[in-house]
Amino acid sequence: MPDPARPRAPVLVTGATGYVGGRLVPRLLEAGHRVRCLVRSPRKLESRPWADDPAVEIVTGDLQDPAAVRAALDGCRAAYYLVHSMVTAGADYAARDRQLARAFATAAEEAGLERIVYLGGLGETGANLSEHLSSRREVEEALDSGRVPTTVFRAAMIVGSGSASFEILRYLVERLPVMITPRWVRTRCQPVAIRDVLRVLVECLQQPKTAGRTFELGGPDVLTYLDLIQLTAEIRGLPRRLVIPVPVLTPKLSALWIHLVTPIDARLARPLTEGLRNEVVCAEATVHELLPGPRTSIRDAIRLAHDRIAEHHVETRWSDAGAMPGDPDWAGGKTFVDPREITIEAPPSAVFAAVCRVGGGHGWYAGDWLWRLRGWMDRLVGGPGLRRGRRDPEQVGWGEALDFWRVTDVVPDRRLELRAEMKLPGTATLEFEIEPVADGARLRQTARFKPKGLSGLVYWYTVLPLHGFVFRGMLRGIDRAARHLVRLSPPASERSSELGAEREPGRA
Questions:
Q1: Among 113, 240, 265, 291, which is disulfide-ready with 108 (CB 3.0 to 4.6 Å)?
Q2: 428 closest CA partner among 444, 408, 410, 448
Q3: Residue 171's pLDDT is what?
Q4: What is the pLDDT of residues 28-72, one digit of tens each?
């Protein structure tokens, strides 16, 4: 039975697989809303703890499909528009975003929606506004072109564990004691904590006066990016960074440098760095009158973000919203296959847990220096390299980024498949399959590569000699890790005794 305390009509959330949307859904549920998520790849949400909540409905659809959008909006009372084409559409992202927003506004009007809520970017108006922030303004106008009132929040730099802006900041501070920066390092900004952004996004639905209004979101502190760098160093217990501003660094060069030093892709870094030349300070504070509540200082926001990362409790990351490839088509060309297997004296669950630890801080069980070298080579040619890491050190979810791989299939205790997103002259996957056997579990590891042209063939035969060292060593490492996990687990009889003791009345 539906919760009688929840409103009948659901709230639609677009971008639920992204950084803000993935955190907004559970907050809406906590506030008593029913939520409908429109996503291209529903399996991306399987690992979210709220995905099986009875108040959540997940529907498959693409914003480019008007019929799918109209069907998703049917019966909803409000919708959150939290999508952006900046990475997936390349240089045409602004035109794509205008088109999608205009179509969404039309569909919302046809569905009789009460309100659209949009999260955009804060920045001074005028001719100097960056292309990225100008695009955000165009989306505002497109959403507001219909009859459905649109509530617009223009947020400054969002600080939270896993946000793109914060990842750039922390990696620059932690890796570079000396920085040569563009002049924008002295630009003023008013960063806002992700928790404060989520609070107003949820509470605005309960305040009718916020409908059809535009609000600016910033934290209580105004400082320069240079101040932000030094404050982050202080909180991390690092010496003050030596920062040298120079006038010759263009946004393109700055984006390339960010790409090499941080996990952020150059395609995302460039529009972000272009926007840094604009002063990002709130000109009005009406939002705090209509939606009063606590405001997190920048010092507390940075400390909280670092604590979440240290605790391996990063709820969502900037990389979560990466586009998923279609099922690989191995027909119509030569596909090279490198299969290997090993029998491990451990149950499938322990083997699967060991497999899921690959990448990130755990490394790759063998030849880590080769993986790091490959990561640096990838960064130099514009790929993601190893800097993206992973969201959680133990768990993996479908669609998540894992170093320069993407999780394209995951079946607990049975299978994990990764698809390479590094710069390659072809398509590569790495697959792990687990099968129970009498002595424990058989682990099959299969590397596949579909070359593209002569360069792809050259690449395959160049790296093939290293496979024996890297992949064979990986299997041996997984074997050791799985057996170690078994030794750490108490016997079933002990677990049963412990469970019985917990159920016995009067026990602490």
A1: 113
A2: 448
A3: 83
A4: 999 999 999 999 888 888 888 899 999 999 999 888 888 999 999
Task: Judge whether residue 456 has pLDDT over 90.
Answer: no
Domain boundaries, the chain: 336-488
Contacts 24+ apart (CB under 8 A), 453-460: 453/425, 455/425, 456/424, 456/425, 456/426, 458/425, 459/424, 459/425, 459/426, 460/336, 460/426
3-state secondary structure of 472: helix
Q: Please answer whether residues 73 and 61 qualify as being in contact, where contact means their C-beta atoms are separated by less than 8 angstroms.
A: no
C-alpha–C-alpha distance, residues 119 and 251, integer Å:
24
Q: State the maximum Cα–Cα separation within the chain, in Å, rounded to a whole number.
A: 73
Cα 283 from Cα 125, distance rounded (Å)? 11
| Residue appearing with tokens 């630009």 | 187
CB 213 within 8 A of CB 152: yes
Q: How far apart are CA 474 and CA 27, in angstroms?
A: 40
Could you report how far apart the first and last alpha carbons of the chain are, in Å?
A: 35
- Given a contact cutoff of 8 angstroms between Cβ atoms, the answer to whether 481 and 357 are in contact is yes
Q: Considering only CA atoms, which of 171, 159, 252 is closest in space to residue 197?
A: 159
